Every structure is written in structure tokens, then in C-alpha cells.
Amino acid sequence: MRSVKITKIVEVAKDSFLLSFLRDFEFVAGQVIGINIGVVQPARLYSIASGSSEEEIKILFNLKDDGYLTPLLASSKPGNSIQISPPFGNFVCNEKEAWWIASGTGIAPFASMISSGTAAGKTLIHGSRFLSNFYFQNEIAPIMKASYIRCCSAESGVGIYSGRLTRYLKEREDLPTDKKYYLCGSADMVVDTRDILISKGIPYENIIAEIYF
Ligand SMILES: Cc1cc2nc3c(=O)[nH]c(=O)nc-3n(C[C@H](O)[C@H](O)[C@H](O)COP(=O)(O)OP(=O)(O)OC[C@H]3O[C@@H](n4cnc5c(N)ncnc54)[C@H](O)[C@@H]3O)c2cc1C
Fold it and tell me: How far is the CA of 212 from the centre of ligand 1 (A)?
């Protein structure tokens, strides 16, 4: 672990924050880093949300009021130090057609992939309870156009599917069985989505998951 200084921290929606620091390392879109403040507890893992050529590394996180690290991060200021690990992880995607499925802050690795230029041939489904939690939608929508599907379970909005992403997937009759499916977010979403995909004939080995536990 080594120390870097926060350049920005912005509350992008209620209890959701985007933290930035200058990038001085290479990474592959989809990878994670460990973050810590002090050494009281082990580092927590976070997907890098920014593109691989961007000047800054961006991390999107939800505040857990009763958690260890996120209250410390959420109250940090620009200029404060955090400890980071080198980037690592295999949740990376190639140029082939694929489906990307995210819940909540699980959009982060896909936002990184899109900013790194791998959006062509991808379909992105993002599920959230509230309309305010479609992070990066202003950047994603013009690039992915009709291949970007937002599913909102607690509110309705223009152009947004009303309901959980799992219901959306159950209703789709045309899910290809020969493409890879990348799932990222809560354990509940990943487990439920995996079951639906398997029930629709998608082979287990075509489902790649990153679970935020
Ligand atoms: C590969 C990976 C990538 C991730 N990427 C992201 C990301 O990009 N963005 C993001 O927001 N999160 C991400 N996470 C989750 C992140 O690592 C942290 O778990 C999260 O931010 C909470 O950290 P915390 O220290 O604030 O909470 P923690 O202290 O870890 O607590 C989390 C929750 O668990 C509860 N809890 C803690 N200990 C116990 C216990 N013993 N028994 C029962 N409940 C307990 C707490 O009350 C709290 O509600 C990722 C996780 C993984 C594994």
C-alpha cells in the first residue's frame, strides 16, 4: 500500500460519492484497487470507475453508515491522504459482443470500460432503486444509445424500464446464448441474475461475475 492525495470528493447522489486522485499507474478497465485510511482494519476493494487513459483515478462508493472505511472516506477532503494497493483483478472484457449487467455502484467497471473505448457491441443493463443512482448516465447514454437500458424499481422516469433488472431479463426472449455476460454488483443481484440467465440457456461458463461483498 502507498499513499496518494485525494484531489476531489463529490457527493453525486444521496450517500454516493465519487473520489478522485491523480493516476500514476497503468491498469486495465474492470480492475480494482484496495483502499485504506490507517491500518485499523484491512483495506476494502473498489472498482476503478475512470478510463485507463484518464488523468485521474475515480472511485464510486456508497456510504455505509455503520461501516469502517466509507464513513472515513465520505468525510475526507481534497488534500487528505489515502492508502492504495496496485490495481489487480480479472474482471476485464475484450472487444467481442457481450452483455454487461450492473446494480448500483456495480456500474463502475463498465463506466471504466466505456471510457476506455470498449463499448462497441455491448449491451448494458443498469438496475437501481432510485433515478438519482444511474451514475455516469450522462456520459454513458450518448455512447451506448439504445444498448443502454436503465431499470428502476422504486421510481418511474421517461425512457426507464419500471422494475428490477431481473424482471427485465426474465421478460427478454432474445438473450443470446453464445455471448458472455458480465455481472457486477450486490451478491443478491448476481445470484438472481445468474439463475435467470442459466434458466434461459446461457451456459455457466459464459457468466462472469464481480460481487461487491
Ligand atoms: C471486488 C470488489 C469490488 C468492490 N467495488 C466497490 C465499488 O466500486 N464501490 C463500492 O461502493 N463498493 C465496492 N465494494 C464493496 C467495498 O469493498 C466495501 O465492502 C464497502 O465500501 C463497505 O466498506 P466499509 O468499510 O464502509 O463497511 P464494512 O465495515 O466493511 O461493513 C459493510 C457492512 O457490513 C456490515 N458488517 C460489518 N461487519 C459485519 C459482521 N461481522 N457481521 C455482519 N455485518 C457486518 C456493516 O454493518 C456494514 O453495513 C467492492 C467489493 C469487492 C469485493
Answer: 7
